[in-house]
Known about the structure:
The chain is of the alpha/beta class. The radius of gyration is 20 Å and the shape is elongated. It is built from seven helices and seven strands. It has a domain at 28-81 and 114-145: CATH 3.90.1180.10.
Amino acid sequence: MNNINFNSFFKGNAMDMNRAFFLPKEQSKPKWILIDARGKVVGRLATQIAKTLRGKDETFFTPHTDSGDYVVIINAKDVVFTGDKYEQKVYEFYTGYIGNKKFVTAKQMIAKHPERVMELAVKRMMPKNKLSRALLGKLKVYAGSEHPHQAQFNTAAKLAALAA
């Protein structure tokens, strides 16, 4: 919310009710959020992540611009399904060849590609448009606790060290 120009929204000392505030793309300052998925329910976690990717949890949410944050999910192999979904939920995909429709259970998907479970859950909770497909590029999912984005999370420590 730093360095956002609200001057066009106000007329003198009063707010102009005939104008809406839209966050320009240039003024968007995305943060990096790290989420540990160990023991979390897939659907409930995916709704929070989809909201964060779109920027709906920010005060300056604008539906047609990218105002969301980057999300890094670690320990995706340890997510939890409610009920019998671990055994009964079926992921369906088509290979591109005639008659090659494949079915994979959630148990098989977590064993082979644990990050795809969270990616598909978040993708299916986003609106189906070009902006959402671009926003999914801000989602980084890793099966284990290691990730290559450590530099983005150490910015607060670096700023504190520079100020001292």
